[in-house]
Protein: Benzaldehyde dehydrogenase
Amino acid sequence: MDMPVNPVWQQHLFLGGWQTGEGEPLAVTEPATGERLSQVKAATPADVDRAATIARDAQQRWAAVPFDQKAEILRTAAALLKERAGEINGWNTRECGSIGPKAEWELQATYEQAQMAAALPMQPSGQIFPSNLPGKRNYWQRIPLGTVGVIAPWNFPILLSMRSVLPALALGNCVILKPDPKSSVCGGALMAQVLQDAGLPEGVFHVLPGGPEVGQALVEHPLVKMISFTGSTAVGRKIGETCGRMLKKAALELGGNNAQVVLDDADLDAASSCGAWGSFLHQGQICMQTGRHLVHRSVADAYIERLAARAGNLACGDPWRQQVHLGPLINEAQARRVEDILQRSVAMGARIVVGGRRRGNFVDATVIADVTPDMPVFSEEIFGPVAPVMAFDSDDQATDLVNESPYGLAAAIHSGSTERARRIAERIRVGMVHINDQTVNNEFQVPFGGLGSSGNSGRFGGPANLDEFTTSQWVSVLDEGIQYPF
Ligand code: NAD
Structure:
């Protein structure tokens, strides 16, 4: 079945409304087949300037829209996401290689983000503080930042863009979204349509598909007051440097190399199920992917046997035409990179227990054992369907191994004693830790984010959104003028 293609987004850019763009067509390709599915209009750095100027002019009008009208637009957007599930999930499957349940989960999570954003405009927006001057009143209030730039990756292109776009809009900002060029339809054009049809006023939201040069122009534009970036640590660092120089707010959600620790008293059936889910979901292309399985030596063989049995049962293929557990990696470069990490680690003594095979963009679910910290499969973010297993001998050693990584996004700890697991949790440097669960955990109402090379401590979700997407102003009022000593 062909996907519905809209000539509007094939030919136009969304600059607060559909407009002619000067850029080249950007091909939309299906990673499972290499087939060209469609095209979008690519943005240029000049379009960033157009969008930023339109957004600057629209922002104060948008901020002044009464809170209940903003909430209604966001609730309508939530309803449209559900109404268009067939179209959005279809594009997520074909454009991004997502299996059906992953696409459905992503859309449901985005729906929840939209509902939560709809509740933001009615939150209290300030506080009153006392003054030591009689008759003086101190108001402290949240105010919008102005225009927020959102730069998103391709792996969960709808959720990871909308988790910033929707709360930023709800709090009175205009937003310019730059989706990844590999997910410009589902993570860009379809979202523009949803928000336009939900009644968002002209000029408030913009979508600029394109690569690094468009992203860089967005980061460097003086009218863009904040960058919310989700992507690799290398690019996040560069963006952070630019924002630091420009004194611009930056929320950076970056890579991970997340550990699942399995203690000797763990339920191995549950732990291996969590391990398989954490390593293989969406072909491992998740920042919270379980990239390291640290297992107590006394149970390591039993754990590997269970994990390998689960991996061996996973079908890998075209998620649009077949019923599979794993789809393709996003492109051949990524698949080759995973293969290379495996080959280099095997050359250093690691042992592939199951999987290890690449066919074009497809990599089978792989369990690799006898891993040591100096191997690339341990130290690098893999972003592919690979579960590296390393044995440890004590809780202290497990703690040190978790902390050995410069990343600090998520971790999981499995133990029959939650007290023992909590003692380890308190000593590991990660932003999110899950006891007797897996690392790929995301609940929209709980602040989400990492430490170390995984980010600059920005947080998404729940109460954190109010702080992330606003700044504040102190207004003091005296009813009459006051005289100072000179
Ligand atoms: P990437 O950093 O290459 O690209 C992410 C986005 O940045 C894309 O839109 C890209 O076009 C843009 N970009 C690239 N260079 C840029 C530049 N110089 N200036 C401005 N924008 C630029 O990341 P990727 O490889 O597409 O995504 C995978 C990475 O993202 C992994 O490291 C993964 O862990 C991370 N990630 C993190 C989270 C999180 O919440 N922490 C979530 C998903 C993915």
In short: The mean pLDDT is 97. The two ends are 80 Å apart (CA to CA).
